[in-house]
Amino acid sequence: MRPSTLRALNRAAELTRQNRLTEAMLVAEPVILTADPVEGNEIRQWLIDHVTDFTGENHTHPKELP
Q1: Which residues contact 8 (CB under 8 A, 6 or more apart)?
Q2: Domain ranges (residues) in the chain
Q3: Which of 1, 28, 56, 64 is most buried per CB count within 10 Å?
Q4: Does this model's pTM top 0.70?
Q5: Which pLDDT score is estimated for 52?
Q6: Cα angle, residue 48 at apex, residues 33 and 38 outer, rounded to 5°
Q7: What is the Cα–Cα distance from 35 to 43, expressed in whole angstroms?
Q8: What is the tens place of the pLDDT at every residue in 14-66?
Q9: Can you tell me the distance from the alpha carbon of 8 to that of 11, in angstroms, rounded to the nearest whole number?
Q10: How far apart are CA 62 and CA 10, in angstroms?
Q11: Which pLDDT score, from 0 to 100, does residue 58 have?
Q12: CA distances from 20 to 11, 15, 16, 26, 49 (A)
């Protein structure tokens, strides 16, 4: 995954934890929509692995995205 994509995802997670969902979407959506298939898979896995970064909760079993 490109460093710029990772920065955008981390920033979106931070904004989401601050209840700034609209801003989070504005940050994350462009990198998600422009990702090629390989990076798209990396983004999907990152989101699965970092769900608690967005919720601020600690789960014993990570949630899976469909």
Answers
A1: 27, 28, 30, 31
A2: 3-54
A3: 28
A4: yes
A5: 86
A6: 45
A7: 8
A8: 999 999 999 999 999 999 999 999 999 999 999 999 888 887 776 555 555 55
A9: 5
A10: 18
A11: 66
A12: 11, 5, 5, 10, 21
Which amino acid, residue 3?
Answer: P
Chain centroid, CA 14 distance in Å? 10
Instruction: Report the b/e string of 24-48 with b at 16+ CB within 10 A.
Output: beebbeebbeebeeebeebbeebbe
> In the 3-class helix/strand/coil scheme, how is the chain assigned residue by residue?
CCHHHHHHHHHHHHHHHCCCHHHHHHHHHHHHHHCCHHHHHHHHHHHHHCHHHHHCCCCCCCCCCC
